[in-house]
Design a protein that fits this description.
alpha/beta
């Protein structure tokens, strides 16, 4: 058995101006970090500048970077606003590239 900590991504699921997910993500990370049993990292999908699905040939560097980040993590916590009884379009789009 290894004592290596797992890596958890706190995914910010909105890209809109004025969003509050960064503040909520920092709040969640602050609480999670006190546990000490995992490494927690905020992952903001807006940092990857993902194109809209269906408007790309899939070669944009943000897509590769997004996938590399996701595959480096062992688990996820999603900070996402409810939109029309579902998750945001930005998060749906990002998950389609995963």
């Amino acid at each position: 058995m290894t004592n290596e900590k797992i890596n958890i991504g706190i995914i910010l699921g909105s890209t809109r101006k004025g969003r509050v997910s960064p503040q909520v993500g920092e709040w969640v990370k602050g609480i999670a970090d006190k546990r000490g049993d995992a490494n927690y990292e905020i992952v903001d999908i807006s940092d990857f500048q993902l194109p809209f699905l269906g408007t790309t040939d899939g070669t944009e560097p943000g897509i590769a970077a997004w996938n590399k980040k996701l595959f480096s993590l062992d688990g996820f916590v999603f900070i996402v606003q409810e939109y029309n009884h579902s998750i945001t379009g930005a998060l749906k789009n990002a998950l389609d590239f995963a």
